[in-house]
Amino acid sequence: MTTKAREMVVMAVTMVMMMFLMTTNASEGPSVHHHLKKRALCNGPRNNDPVKVCVKTNGYGVITAYGTVSQVYVRIQGTKCITTWLSLDNKHSYHFEQSTYVCINYYIPAIGTPVVFQVKVDPNTDHWYPKYFTVQFNQHCWTFYFDRWIYSSLPRTMTNPRHSMTGKCSTT
């Protein structure tokens, strides 16, 4: 193989790898550190009204193993502060099965408007395919779309939520 041919192969492989990385991170936005600005942890008085966090697990298509029985943790960054990692209580193993829509209420300090949502799973997790997450309070709903597989316990970051003022979030 000539030097010119070798250079072309290396360039083609590099371009394919860059395209793959751009596609796999598109909905997650830039790196976690870029979006998680230095906000203080939420530590004021807890709200009397809960913040409802919901997750829709995918369930369409040929694959039937979209769900997980693993422990799932979420963290929300608002315009005022960032929460600690909150456990999406999975006491019932069916919580995150294929096609389910599960909601958990949290009584946490005021976070402001949700701008970044993170999710991570137990290190000993099986694979999981969450479609989207919602954050609901004060008759508002913010939807963070994910729609991809989680294969590891590394935190996944979502930004640019879709906002609804109807107080109702989609469950489909």
UniProtKB/TrEMBL annotation:
Top-level division of the source organism's lineage: Eukaryota
InterPro entries given in the database record: PLAT/LH2_dom_sf (IPR036392)
SUPFAM superfamilies for this protein: Lipase/lipooxygenase domain (PLAT/LH2 domain) (SSF49723)
Keywords: Signal
Signal sequence segment: 1-26
Name of the protein: Uncharacterized protein
Organism placement in taxonomy: Eukaryota, Metazoa, Spiralia, Lophotrochozoa, Mollusca
